[in-house]
Amino acid sequence: MQKVFNFLKCGNKVTVVSLCIIFSSFIYTFICHGGYNWGIDFSSGVNVNFVIDKVGVKDYDVKKVLSPFYKTFDVNEIISSDSFKSQFSIVVKSDITDYAFKKEIHNILVDRLSAEFGVNVEILDSYFIDSNFSSILRTRSILLVCLTFALILVYVALRFRLSYAVASIFATMHDILFVIAFLGVFRIEINSTIIVSILTIVGYSLNDTIIIFDRIRENSRNMTDVSFLNVLNVSISQTLSRTILTSVTTFVTVFSIYIFTEGAIKDFALVFMVGVIVGTYSSIFIASPILLSCYKKIR
Q1: Mean pLDDT, consecutive 10-residue segments, the chain of 299 residues?
Q2: Could you give the 3-state DSSP secondary structure of residue 49?
Q3: Runs of H (alpha helix) within 192-227
Q4: Rounded to whole angstroms, how far apart are CA atoms 291 and 287?
Q5: Is 273 helix (H, G, I), strand (E, B) or coil?
Q6: 50 pairs with which residues across the strands?
Q7: Rounded Cα–Cα distance for residues 93 and 68 (Å)
Q8: Are the C-beta atoms of residues 148 and 202 closer than 8 Å to each other?
Q9: What's the pLDDT at 80?
Q10: Domains of the chain (ranges plus CATH)?
Q11: CB atoms closer than 10 angstroms to residue 139
Q12: How many Å separate Cα 106 from the centre of its chain?
């Protein structure tokens, strides 16, 4: 006979601790960092990809040369197909985003880096995003996330019942808030790739929760002689091995991506790893206690 763990006993405590971590992280982000590190997708600025005809140049070498010219910029090293060259991407955040500003950046990159390293510097491509476009993109991203939650609510309500839908929404919102708090504390740049990662986390977390909820629904029909609290504990215990194995497998896969990649994909993998961890424990310790609270109140 399978051992049944009393997960609901510590569910409320886990929820409170998790919410405290989230809100304290938000406070820390705005007090210590002054807000989030928005990429040029959601603010405004210029992105330039360039190549230095010299091997062994690092991103901090480029930053050292350019730091007197720009206050807010970031340099990322890109793996080049040419082993005799060093390729980089620079993002300069600025409210001034026009062709003249982009040309100015091109000139500074070519002149200063060529003088510093004594080799040719070639601009591969560049683009700028103005404040109007970034504002529209930010608004649409928020609407996209809200629409996702609305569709989740409808889907789960139709497949199960409204109480299950409410519980899954709250658990998924918890996961997203935790990830957003993580982004703020560690100053990870929020760009389109991060939004994709967040939406992926929504799908992963929801799938994890649905597996448990499906077993709860099945057991609630068969175990009519026990309380719904016991049904929840039995259902979570029965799906625990599956939940852990799936999460570990996913985490290891994404971790390998994090180790062997650079740039935006690396950030995607890092954020998704956090989402896997948070989504796993929220499915067990947060979604089910909320379902227990809503089960008799919301049909």
Answers
A1: 75 88 95 88 84 87 86 75 80 75 85 90 84 82 86 86 89 94 92 90 90 90 85 90 92 94 87 95 89 75
A2: strand
A3: 192-222
A4: 6
A5: helix
A6: 88, 123
A7: 15
A8: yes
A9: 65
A10: 7-38+133-297 (1.20.1640.10), 45-129 (3.30.70.260)
A11: 11
A12: 32
Please give the order of strands across the beta sheet that includes 121-129: 73-78, 86-93, 45-52, 121-129
Distance CA 77, CA 263 (A): 8
The letter for the amino acid at 85 is K
What's the rounded Cα separation, in Å, for the pair 76 and 70? 15
In angstroms, rounded to a whole number, what is the distance separating the alpha carbons of residues 187 and 297?
41
Phi and psi torsions of 67, nearest 5° = -55, -30
H helix or E strand, kind and range, residue 73: strand 73-78
Label residue 57 exposed, middle or buried (CB < 10 Å: 0-12, 13-18, 19+): buried
90 three-state secondary structure: strand
Output the DSSP codes for 129-175.
E-HHHHHHHHHHHHHHHHHHHHHHHHHHHHHS-HHHHHHHHHHHHHH
